[in-house]
């Protein structure tokens, strides 16, 4: 479904992502791991349109998307979350989800300006749908609270659900459990399974090895921008190069 071929990005003399090939299979959880500075977030940025790769291609549903703008990539069905949570802090939780739904809404600047009955009906329907999304992640009680008032784990979930609300086919999660407590992490595992059941494919960068090894169907390992290994978690855990590079030889 999503395929990267030879993706390369350079910052001056540094090749942050170096000819990386990756296949993200439909309805699976693919993990991208590697030591700090390996190029994981930069790779995400190439897929989500923040950067245009210097070389290589990214193909989604049979179409080249490398070099497209982030909003075009989002419209195509790829949504992402950020390492540093990126919400509209002064908007309520439900409004944040509605913003996520915006690409799928029909209203335009002019119809919004005049608040036609059709716009009001669409807004009502969008609010109801957004509320359903909040329920999906157990955040409905915060619907009318500003995003900044949610507990930290809740903010992470809100960011994910805002992505889902755009009818994403692929969700790119950048360190989704960073900062979550043990209970939130345990629940997160179940949530990812529920997301998969909705037909959404997941690609995630995560440092929490227990989570990654337990939940991912397939893993790619980056080191200094290059692909070091790929395989199912069992293979990766035993891979001598990965143990050397990432697990510090333990
Ligand atoms: N905009 C930029 N300009 C210059 N160098 C950059 C830029 N973004 C990232 N880098 C460099 O590219 C390399 C890869 O960084 P990146 O953030 O992608 O790694 P990462 O694997 O996501 O790390 P972490 O696990 O710490 O988040 C690093 O050496 C980083 O300093």
TrEMBL record:
Xref: CDD domains: ABC_Mj1267_LivG_branched
Taxonomic superkingdom: Bacteria
SMART domains: AAA
GO cellular component terms listed in the entry, alphabetical order: plasma membrane
InterPro entries documented for this protein: AAA+_ATPase, ABC_AA/LPS_Transport, ABC_transporter-like_ATP-bd, BCA_ABC_TP_C, P-loop_NTPase
Coiled coil segments of this chain: none
GO BP annotation list: D-alanine transmembrane transport; L-alanine transport; L-isoleucine import across plasma membrane; L-valine import across plasma membrane
Keywords carried by this UniProt record: ATP-binding, Nucleotide-binding, Transport
GO molecular function (one): ATP binding
Entry keyword annotation includes Transport: yes
Positions of the ABC transporter domain: 2-249
Protein name listed in UniProt: ABC transporter ATP-binding protein
